[in-house]
Amino acid sequence: MTLALHNTLTRRVEPFAPLAPPRVTLYTCGPTVWNFAHLGNFRTFLFEDLLRRYLEYSGYDVFHIMNLTDVDDRTIKAAAGAGKLLGEHTAPFVQAFFEDRDYLRIKPAHAYPRATESIAAMVRLVERLLERGVAYKGDDGSIYFAIAKFPGYGRLSRLDTRELKVGARVASDEYAKDDPRDFALWKKAEPADEQVGAAWDAPFGRGRPGWHLECSAMSLEQIAKCCGTTTLDIHAGGVDLVFPHHEDEIAQSEAATAQPFARHWLHGEFLNVRGTKMSKRFGNFLTARDLREQGVDAAAVRLLFWQTHYRKALDFTDEALTGAGAGVRRLGEFRARLLGEREKGKGEGEGKLAGLATKFETDFRAALDDDLNAPRACAALFQLVHDGNAALDVGAPGAAVALTVLDRAMEVLDVLPTAKRLDAELRRWIQDRLAARDKARKAKDFKEADRIRAELAARGVEIEDTPSGTKWRLV
Ligand SMILES: [Zn+2]
Protein backbone atom coordinates (compact mmCIF):
# COMPACT_ATOMS: atom_id res chain seq x y z
CA MET A 1 0.00 0.00 0.00
CA THR A 2 1.12 3.54 -0.58
CA LEU A 3 0.41 6.76 1.18
CA ALA A 4 -2.99 8.30 0.49
CA LEU A 5 -4.05 11.68 1.86
CA HIS A 6 -7.31 13.57 1.96
CA ASN A 7 -7.22 16.49 -0.46
CA THR A 8 -9.51 19.42 0.36
CA LEU A 9 -9.49 20.38 -3.33
CA THR A 10 -11.23 17.15 -4.36
CA ARG A 11 -12.75 16.19 -0.98
CA ARG A 12 -11.31 12.72 -1.51
CA VAL A 13 -8.56 10.56 -0.08
CA GLU A 14 -6.10 10.33 -2.96
CA PRO A 15 -2.78 8.55 -3.53
CA PHE A 16 0.02 10.96 -2.77
CA ALA A 17 2.63 11.47 -5.47
CA PRO A 18 4.98 14.48 -5.37
CA LEU A 19 6.02 16.31 -8.52
CA ALA A 20 9.70 15.38 -8.31
CA PRO A 21 10.17 12.45 -5.93
CA PRO A 22 11.79 11.96 -3.51
CA ARG A 23 11.56 15.73 -2.91
CA VAL A 24 8.36 16.95 -1.28
CA THR A 25 7.71 20.65 -0.85
CA LEU A 26 5.50 21.36 2.15
CA TYR A 27 4.18 24.77 3.15
CA THR A 28 2.33 25.24 6.42
CA CYS A 29 0.80 28.53 7.55
CA GLY A 30 2.68 29.63 10.63
CA PRO A 31 1.72 31.59 13.71
CA THR A 32 0.78 35.25 13.84
CA VAL A 33 3.23 36.44 16.44
CA TRP A 34 1.07 39.08 18.12
CA ASN A 35 0.75 36.88 21.24
CA PHE A 36 1.44 33.31 22.45
CA ALA A 37 0.12 30.63 20.11
CA HIS A 38 -2.68 28.69 21.81
CA LEU A 39 -3.13 24.96 22.03
CA GLY A 40 -5.54 24.95 19.10
CA ASN A 41 -2.78 26.40 16.91
CA PHE A 42 -0.46 23.70 18.20
CA ARG A 43 -2.91 20.97 17.34
CA THR A 44 -2.54 22.10 13.73
CA PHE A 45 1.26 22.30 14.02
CA LEU A 46 1.36 18.82 15.58
CA PHE A 47 -0.77 17.33 12.82
CA GLU A 48 1.68 18.90 10.36
CA ASP A 49 4.56 17.42 12.36
CA LEU A 50 2.99 13.97 12.01
CA LEU A 51 2.61 14.54 8.27
CA ARG A 52 6.21 15.71 7.88
CA ARG A 53 7.63 12.86 9.95
CA TYR A 54 5.59 10.20 8.20
CA LEU A 55 6.64 11.51 4.79
CA GLU A 56 10.26 11.24 5.94
CA TYR A 57 9.67 7.77 7.39
CA SER A 58 8.24 6.81 3.98
CA GLY A 59 11.50 7.83 2.32
CA TYR A 60 10.63 11.31 1.09
CA ASP A 61 13.03 14.21 1.27
CA VAL A 62 10.79 16.93 2.68
CA PHE A 63 11.50 20.63 2.36
CA HIS A 64 9.25 22.22 4.96
CA ILE A 65 8.49 25.94 4.97
CA MET A 66 6.58 27.67 7.74
CA ASN A 67 6.04 31.41 7.64
CA LEU A 68 5.91 33.77 10.58
CA THR A 69 3.23 36.43 10.24
CA ASP A 70 4.92 39.35 11.95
CA VAL A 71 2.89 42.10 10.29
CA ASP A 72 -0.90 42.17 9.99
CA ASP A 73 -3.85 43.91 11.64
CA ARG A 74 -3.44 42.08 14.93
CA THR A 75 0.33 42.51 15.32
CA ILE A 76 0.06 46.23 14.51
CA LYS A 77 -2.77 46.73 16.98
CA ALA A 78 -0.94 44.78 19.69
CA ALA A 79 2.32 46.68 19.13
CA ALA A 80 0.51 50.03 19.26
CA GLY A 81 -1.29 48.94 22.42
CA ALA A 82 2.03 48.06 24.04
CA GLY A 83 3.59 51.34 22.87
CA LYS A 84 6.28 49.46 20.94
CA LEU A 85 7.60 49.18 17.44
CA LEU A 86 6.32 46.17 15.50
CA GLY A 87 9.59 44.25 15.67
CA GLU A 88 10.04 44.92 19.39
CA HIS A 89 6.60 43.60 20.09
CA THR A 90 6.81 40.45 17.96
CA ALA A 91 10.38 39.32 18.81
CA PRO A 92 9.55 37.73 22.19
CA PHE A 93 6.55 35.92 20.70
CA VAL A 94 8.69 34.50 17.90
CA GLN A 95 11.09 33.24 20.57
CA ALA A 96 8.19 31.83 22.61
CA PHE A 97 6.83 30.05 19.56
CA PHE A 98 10.17 28.30 18.97
CA GLU A 99 10.36 27.31 22.64
CA ASP A 100 6.85 25.88 22.57
CA ARG A 101 7.62 24.07 19.33
CA ASP A 102 10.67 22.45 20.92
CA TYR A 103 8.77 21.57 24.07
CA LEU A 104 6.17 19.75 21.96
CA ARG A 105 8.98 18.05 19.98
CA ILE A 106 7.80 19.52 16.68
CA LYS A 107 10.54 19.20 14.08
CA PRO A 108 11.84 22.59 13.00
CA ALA A 109 10.91 23.63 9.47
CA HIS A 110 13.76 24.10 7.00
CA ALA A 111 12.80 27.72 6.43
CA TYR A 112 10.93 30.23 8.58
CA PRO A 113 10.46 33.23 6.30
CA ARG A 114 9.19 36.30 8.11
CA ALA A 115 6.70 38.59 6.47
CA THR A 116 8.65 41.74 7.36
CA GLU A 117 11.77 40.25 5.76
CA SER A 118 9.96 39.22 2.57
CA ILE A 119 8.49 42.57 1.56
CA ALA A 120 10.42 42.68 -1.73
CA ALA A 121 8.85 39.39 -2.87
CA MET A 122 5.42 40.70 -1.92
CA VAL A 123 5.91 43.93 -3.84
CA ARG A 124 7.01 41.94 -6.91
CA LEU A 125 3.93 39.73 -6.66
CA VAL A 126 1.58 42.72 -6.46
CA GLU A 127 3.32 44.30 -9.46
CA ARG A 128 2.85 41.13 -11.42
CA LEU A 129 -0.84 40.94 -10.54
CA LEU A 130 -1.27 44.59 -11.55
CA GLU A 131 0.49 43.92 -14.87
CA ARG A 132 -1.76 40.96 -15.51
CA GLY A 133 -4.84 43.08 -14.88
CA VAL A 134 -6.14 40.99 -11.97
CA ALA A 135 -5.38 43.67 -9.40
CA TYR A 136 -6.33 47.33 -9.22
CA LYS A 137 -5.91 50.37 -7.04
CA GLY A 138 -9.08 51.20 -5.08
CA ASP A 139 -10.36 54.69 -4.39
CA ASP A 140 -8.76 54.50 -0.95
CA GLY A 141 -5.26 53.96 -2.40
CA SER A 142 -5.05 50.26 -1.43
CA ILE A 143 -4.46 47.54 -4.01
CA TYR A 144 -7.15 44.88 -4.39
CA PHE A 145 -7.42 41.54 -6.11
CA ALA A 146 -10.27 41.45 -8.66
CA ILE A 147 -12.02 38.16 -7.97
CA ALA A 148 -14.19 38.48 -11.08
CA LYS A 149 -10.98 38.18 -13.16
CA PHE A 150 -10.09 34.82 -11.62
CA PRO A 151 -12.63 32.19 -12.73
CA GLY A 152 -11.31 29.48 -10.41
CA TYR A 153 -12.17 31.45 -7.29
CA GLY A 154 -14.09 29.37 -4.74
CA ARG A 155 -12.83 25.98 -5.98
CA LEU A 156 -11.18 25.05 -2.69
CA SER A 157 -13.90 26.20 -0.32
CA ARG A 158 -16.75 25.34 -2.71
CA LEU A 159 -18.77 28.30 -1.57
CA ASP A 160 -21.21 29.75 -4.05
CA THR A 161 -21.19 33.42 -5.03
CA ARG A 162 -23.79 34.40 -2.46
CA GLU A 163 -21.89 32.72 0.38
CA LEU A 164 -18.66 34.31 -0.76
CA LYS A 165 -20.26 37.73 -0.45
CA VAL A 166 -21.50 36.98 3.04
CA GLY A 167 -18.13 35.53 3.97
CA ALA A 168 -16.10 38.47 2.69
CA ARG A 169 -15.22 40.67 5.62
CA VAL A 170 -17.39 43.75 5.64
CA ALA A 171 -15.05 46.63 6.16
CA SER A 172 -15.23 50.39 6.19
CA ASP A 173 -13.40 50.35 2.84
CA GLU A 174 -16.34 48.55 1.22
CA TYR A 175 -16.97 51.32 -1.30
CA ALA A 176 -13.37 51.57 -2.36
CA LYS A 177 -13.60 48.16 -4.03
CA ASP A 178 -15.11 47.24 -7.38
CA ASP A 179 -16.69 44.12 -5.90
CA PRO A 180 -17.34 43.51 -2.19
CA ARG A 181 -15.66 40.10 -2.47
CA ASP A 182 -12.35 41.62 -3.55
CA PHE A 183 -9.64 41.47 -0.92
CA ALA A 184 -6.70 43.75 -0.18
CA LEU A 185 -3.28 42.74 -1.45
CA TRP A 186 -1.59 45.87 -0.20
CA LYS A 187 -3.07 48.28 2.30
CA LYS A 188 -2.28 51.96 2.02
CA ALA A 189 -0.16 53.13 4.95
CA GLU A 190 -2.18 54.68 7.76
CA PRO A 191 -0.74 56.85 10.56
CA ALA A 192 -1.21 53.88 12.93
CA ASP A 193 1.00 51.73 10.66
CA GLU A 194 3.69 54.40 10.46
CA GLN A 195 3.66 54.80 14.22
CA VAL A 196 4.78 51.19 14.81
CA GLY A 197 7.06 51.03 11.74
CA ALA A 198 4.74 48.86 9.66
CA ALA A 199 4.88 50.67 6.32
CA TRP A 200 7.06 50.16 3.27
CA ASP A 201 7.59 52.01 0.02
CA ALA A 202 6.34 50.39 -3.17
CA PRO A 203 5.92 51.58 -6.78
CA PHE A 204 2.14 51.44 -6.29
CA GLY A 205 2.18 53.40 -3.04
CA ARG A 206 3.51 53.23 0.50
CA GLY A 207 1.74 50.62 2.57
CA ARG A 208 1.84 47.15 4.04
CA PRO A 209 0.97 43.66 2.81
CA GLY A 210 -2.35 41.95 3.34
CA TRP A 211 -2.11 38.67 5.26
CA HIS A 212 -3.11 36.46 2.32
CA LEU A 213 -0.48 38.03 0.11
CA GLU A 214 2.24 37.22 2.62
CA CYS A 215 1.77 33.45 2.34
CA SER A 216 1.64 33.44 -1.47
CA ALA A 217 4.76 35.55 -1.81
CA MET A 218 6.79 33.69 0.83
CA SER A 219 5.86 30.19 -0.32
CA LEU A 220 6.54 30.98 -4.00
CA GLU A 221 9.84 32.66 -3.15
CA GLN A 222 10.99 29.75 -0.98
CA ILE A 223 10.12 26.92 -3.38
CA ALA A 224 11.69 28.80 -6.26
CA LYS A 225 14.88 29.10 -4.20
CA CYS A 226 15.01 25.56 -2.83
CA CYS A 227 13.54 23.55 -5.64
CA GLY A 228 13.10 25.70 -8.75
CA THR A 229 9.37 25.17 -8.88
CA THR A 230 6.18 27.23 -8.69
CA THR A 231 3.93 24.44 -7.43
CA LEU A 232 3.85 23.11 -3.89
CA ASP A 233 3.35 19.40 -3.32
CA ILE A 234 1.44 19.99 -0.10
CA HIS A 235 -0.06 23.05 1.53
CA ALA A 236 -1.46 22.50 5.00
CA GLY A 237 -3.16 24.50 7.72
CA GLY A 238 -6.08 24.61 10.11
CA VAL A 239 -9.57 24.10 8.71
CA ASP A 240 -10.46 27.71 9.64
CA LEU A 241 -8.01 28.88 6.96
CA VAL A 242 -9.78 27.26 3.98
CA PHE A 243 -11.83 30.40 3.42
CA PRO A 244 -10.87 33.06 2.75
CA HIS A 245 -7.14 32.65 3.46
CA HIS A 246 -6.28 29.64 1.32
CA GLU A 247 -8.81 30.53 -1.36
CA ASP A 248 -7.09 33.91 -1.65
CA GLU A 249 -3.62 32.36 -1.63
CA ILE A 250 -4.63 30.20 -4.62
CA ALA A 251 -6.09 33.18 -6.50
CA GLN A 252 -3.00 35.36 -6.03
CA SER A 253 -0.48 32.64 -6.76
CA GLU A 254 -2.17 31.06 -9.75
CA ALA A 255 -3.07 34.41 -11.31
CA ALA A 256 0.64 35.29 -11.11
CA THR A 257 2.26 32.01 -12.19
CA ALA A 258 -0.45 30.42 -14.35
CA GLN A 259 0.54 27.16 -12.65
CA PRO A 260 -1.30 25.15 -9.99
CA PHE A 261 -0.29 26.59 -6.60
CA ALA A 262 -0.54 23.43 -4.51
CA ARG A 263 -1.39 19.90 -5.56
CA HIS A 264 -2.54 18.63 -2.21
CA TRP A 265 -4.38 20.65 0.44
CA LEU A 266 -4.56 19.25 3.94
CA HIS A 267 -6.57 20.78 6.76
CA GLY A 268 -6.60 19.87 10.43
CA GLU A 269 -9.73 20.15 12.57
CA PHE A 270 -10.35 22.22 15.68
CA LEU A 271 -9.43 21.59 19.27
CA ASN A 272 -12.06 21.94 21.98
CA VAL A 273 -11.08 22.19 25.62
CA ARG A 274 -13.32 20.55 28.20
CA GLY A 275 -16.23 20.26 25.82
CA THR A 276 -16.34 23.73 24.32
CA LYS A 277 -14.46 25.89 21.88
CA MET A 278 -11.45 27.35 23.61
CA SER A 279 -11.96 30.94 24.71
CA LYS A 280 -10.74 33.30 27.38
CA ARG A 281 -14.36 33.93 28.29
CA PHE A 282 -15.02 30.28 29.18
CA GLY A 283 -11.81 30.09 31.20
CA ASN A 284 -10.58 27.17 29.09
CA PHE A 285 -7.98 29.01 27.05
CA LEU A 286 -4.75 27.03 27.01
CA THR A 287 -1.30 27.69 25.62
CA ALA A 288 1.57 25.24 25.26
CA ARG A 289 3.44 27.06 28.02
CA ASP A 290 0.54 26.54 30.44
CA LEU A 291 1.08 22.81 30.01
CA ARG A 292 4.83 23.11 30.28
CA GLU A 293 4.54 25.15 33.47
CA GLN A 294 2.24 22.48 34.88
CA GLY A 295 4.99 19.93 34.23
CA VAL A 296 3.00 18.02 31.61
CA ASP A 297 5.19 15.65 29.59
CA ALA A 298 5.00 16.67 25.92
CA ALA A 299 4.83 12.96 25.05
CA ALA A 300 1.43 12.79 26.74
CA VAL A 301 0.17 15.78 24.75
CA ARG A 302 1.39 14.22 21.52
CA LEU A 303 -0.16 10.84 22.29
CA LEU A 304 -3.44 12.49 23.24
CA PHE A 305 -3.49 14.35 19.93
CA TRP A 306 -2.62 11.24 17.91
CA GLN A 307 -5.58 9.43 19.46
CA THR A 308 -8.01 11.54 17.42
CA HIS A 309 -7.78 11.64 13.64
CA TYR A 310 -6.61 15.03 12.37
CA ARG A 311 -9.85 15.56 10.44
CA LYS A 312 -12.00 15.11 13.54
CA ALA A 313 -12.54 17.68 16.30
CA LEU A 314 -10.52 16.81 19.37
CA ASP A 315 -11.71 17.33 22.91
CA PHE A 316 -8.90 18.11 25.31
CA THR A 317 -9.88 17.08 28.84
CA ASP A 318 -7.87 16.58 32.02
CA GLU A 319 -8.91 12.91 32.17
CA ALA A 320 -7.81 12.28 28.59
CA LEU A 321 -4.46 13.92 29.31
CA THR A 322 -3.99 11.80 32.45
CA GLY A 323 -4.83 8.70 30.42
CA ALA A 324 -2.31 9.63 27.74
CA GLY A 325 0.31 10.23 30.47
CA ALA A 326 -0.24 6.69 31.76
CA GLY A 327 0.06 5.41 28.18
CA VAL A 328 3.44 7.00 27.56
CA ARG A 329 4.78 5.68 30.87
CA ARG A 330 3.66 2.16 29.94
CA LEU A 331 5.40 2.58 26.62
CA GLY A 332 8.57 3.82 28.34
CA GLU A 333 8.59 0.80 30.65
CA PHE A 334 8.12 -1.57 27.74
CA ARG A 335 11.03 0.01 25.89
CA ALA A 336 13.19 -0.24 29.03
CA ARG A 337 12.40 -3.97 29.26
CA LEU A 338 13.36 -4.51 25.61
CA LEU A 339 16.56 -2.56 26.15
CA GLY A 340 17.38 -4.64 29.24
CA GLU A 341 16.91 -7.87 27.29
CA ARG A 342 19.07 -6.65 24.47
CA GLU A 343 21.84 -5.53 26.80
CA LYS A 344 21.84 -8.92 28.46
CA GLY A 345 22.43 -10.27 24.97
CA LYS A 346 19.38 -12.45 25.32
CA GLY A 347 17.16 -10.79 22.80
CA GLU A 348 19.15 -11.52 19.66
CA GLY A 349 17.73 -12.98 16.49
CA GLU A 350 14.25 -13.97 15.52
CA GLY A 351 11.58 -15.07 17.91
CA LYS A 352 8.18 -14.32 19.28
CA LEU A 353 8.96 -10.64 19.95
CA ALA A 354 10.39 -10.10 16.48
CA GLY A 355 7.23 -11.59 14.99
CA LEU A 356 5.04 -9.26 17.04
CA ALA A 357 7.15 -6.28 16.04
CA THR A 358 6.97 -7.13 12.34
CA LYS A 359 3.21 -7.44 12.52
CA PHE A 360 3.06 -4.12 14.37
CA GLU A 361 5.11 -2.39 11.72
CA THR A 362 2.81 -3.63 8.97
CA ASP A 363 -0.27 -2.40 10.85
CA PHE A 364 1.42 0.89 11.73
CA ARG A 365 2.25 1.65 8.11
CA ALA A 366 -1.16 0.58 6.85
CA ALA A 367 -2.81 2.92 9.35
CA LEU A 368 -0.69 5.96 8.54
CA ASP A 369 -0.80 5.28 4.80
CA ASP A 370 -4.56 5.59 5.17
CA ASP A 371 -4.76 9.40 5.46
CA LEU A 372 -2.55 9.49 8.58
CA ASN A 373 -4.81 7.34 10.70
CA ALA A 374 -2.83 7.90 13.88
CA PRO A 375 -5.53 6.54 16.23
CA ARG A 376 -5.20 3.16 14.48
CA ALA A 377 -1.40 3.39 14.55
CA CYS A 378 -1.54 4.03 18.31
CA ALA A 379 -3.91 1.10 18.82
CA ALA A 380 -1.37 -1.12 17.02
CA LEU A 381 1.39 0.30 19.21
CA PHE A 382 -0.40 -0.53 22.46
CA GLN A 383 -1.26 -3.96 21.14
CA LEU A 384 2.48 -4.48 20.70
CA VAL A 385 3.10 -3.26 24.26
CA HIS A 386 0.46 -5.64 25.60
CA ASP A 387 1.50 -8.73 23.63
CA GLY A 388 5.19 -7.85 23.91
CA ASN A 389 5.03 -7.63 27.71
CA ALA A 390 3.33 -11.03 27.81
CA ALA A 391 6.09 -12.47 25.60
CA LEU A 392 8.77 -10.91 27.80
CA ASP A 393 7.13 -12.45 30.87
CA VAL A 394 7.80 -15.91 29.48
CA GLY A 395 11.31 -15.03 28.29
CA ALA A 396 10.57 -14.98 24.56
CA PRO A 397 13.48 -13.95 22.28
CA GLY A 398 13.56 -11.24 19.64
CA ALA A 399 13.86 -8.14 21.85
CA ALA A 400 16.57 -6.52 19.71
CA VAL A 401 14.40 -6.58 16.60
CA ALA A 402 11.40 -5.31 18.54
CA LEU A 403 13.45 -2.44 19.94
CA THR A 404 14.62 -1.37 16.49
CA VAL A 405 11.08 -1.44 15.14
CA LEU A 406 9.76 0.47 18.13
CA ASP A 407 12.39 3.18 17.83
CA ARG A 408 11.62 3.54 14.13
CA ALA A 409 7.94 4.11 14.92
CA MET A 410 8.99 6.66 17.56
CA GLU A 411 10.64 8.72 14.84
CA VAL A 412 7.10 9.37 13.64
CA LEU A 413 4.96 9.42 16.79
CA ASP A 414 7.69 10.53 19.22
CA VAL A 415 5.74 9.64 22.35
CA LEU A 416 8.35 8.13 24.68
CA PRO A 417 8.46 9.80 28.10
CA THR A 418 10.91 12.69 28.05
CA ALA A 419 13.75 11.09 30.01
CA LYS A 420 13.58 7.75 28.17
CA ARG A 421 13.49 9.37 24.80
CA LEU A 422 16.56 11.47 25.33
CA ASP A 423 19.18 8.78 25.43
CA ALA A 424 18.19 6.61 22.50
CA GLU A 425 16.51 8.70 19.93
CA LEU A 426 18.20 12.02 20.35
CA ARG A 427 21.65 10.47 20.31
CA ARG A 428 20.90 8.72 17.07
CA TRP A 429 19.48 11.86 15.56
CA ILE A 430 22.51 13.91 16.63
CA GLN A 431 24.89 11.41 15.02
CA ASP A 432 22.86 11.51 11.85
CA ARG A 433 22.87 15.33 11.76
CA LEU A 434 26.57 15.55 12.51
CA ALA A 435 27.30 13.18 9.63
CA ALA A 436 25.15 15.28 7.30
CA ARG A 437 26.93 18.44 8.43
CA ASP A 438 30.30 16.85 7.93
CA LYS A 439 29.29 15.89 4.41
CA ALA A 440 28.08 19.42 3.66
CA ARG A 441 31.32 20.92 4.97
CA LYS A 442 33.40 18.60 2.85
CA ALA A 443 31.34 19.69 -0.17
CA LYS A 444 31.94 23.34 0.86
CA ASP A 445 28.19 23.82 1.28
CA PHE A 446 28.56 26.04 4.31
CA LYS A 447 25.01 27.29 4.12
CA GLU A 448 23.74 23.77 4.61
CA ALA A 449 26.28 23.16 7.37
CA ASP A 450 25.06 26.28 9.18
CA ARG A 451 21.50 25.21 8.74
CA ILE A 452 22.26 21.86 10.37
CA ARG A 453 24.08 23.61 13.21
CA ALA A 454 20.93 25.71 13.76
CA GLU A 455 18.78 22.60 13.60
CA LEU A 456 20.94 21.02 16.30
CA ALA A 457 20.90 24.18 18.40
CA ALA A 458 17.11 24.26 18.19
CA ARG A 459 17.08 20.95 20.07
CA GLY A 460 19.61 22.11 22.63
CA VAL A 461 22.69 20.55 21.05
CA GLU A 462 25.79 22.71 21.07
CA ILE A 463 28.63 21.65 18.80
CA GLU A 464 32.29 22.44 18.62
CA ASP A 465 34.65 21.61 15.77
CA THR A 466 37.99 20.34 17.07
CA PRO A 467 41.03 18.92 15.29
CA SER A 468 39.86 15.47 16.35
CA GLY A 469 36.35 15.95 14.97
CA THR A 470 33.10 17.55 15.99
CA LYS A 471 32.16 17.36 19.66
CA TRP A 472 28.65 17.94 20.99
CA ARG A 473 26.93 18.51 24.27
CA LEU A 474 23.40 19.16 25.47
CA VAL A 475 22.73 22.59 26.89
ZN1 LIG B 1 -1.10 31.14 5.00
How would you describe this structure in keywords?
four-stranded antiparallel sheet; Rossmann fold; globular; 15 strands; 3 domains; four-stranded parallel sheet; 475 residues; single chain; alpha/beta; binds zinc ion
Quick take:
The chain has helices at residues 39-57, 73-81, 86-103, 119-131, 161-167, 191-196, 211-227, 242-257, 288-293, 298-306, 318-343, 352-369, 374-393, 399-413, 418-442, 446-458; strands at residues 4-7, 12-15, 23-28, 61-66, 135-137, 143-145, 183-188, 207-209, 232-238, 262-268, 271-273, 276-277, 314-316, 461-466, 469-474. The protein is α/β, with parallel strands linked by helices.
Task: Name the ligand types.
Answer: zinc ion
Please mark out the parts with pLDDT under 50 across 5 or more consecutive residues, or reply none. 169-173
Question: Cα distance, first to last residue?
Answer: 42 Å
Number of strands: 15
Task: Kindly provide the radius of gyration, computed on alpha-carbon positions and rounded to a whole number of angstroms.
Answer: 24 Å
- Per the principal axes of the C-alpha atoms, what is the gross shape? globular
Which fold does the CATH topology of the largest domain refer to?
Rossmann fold
Strand residue content = 5-15%
Major sheet: 4 strands, parallel
Q: What is the count of helical runs? A: 16
> How many domains comprise the coordinates?
3
User: How are the strands ordered across the major sheet?
Assistant: 4-3-9-10
The secondary structure category is alpha/beta
CATH first level of the largest domain: Alpha Beta
> What is the mean pLDDT?
92
Helical content (DSSP H or I, runs of 4+): 40-55%
Reported CATH architecture of the largest domain? 3-Layer(aba) Sandwich
CATH superfamily of the largest domain: HUPs
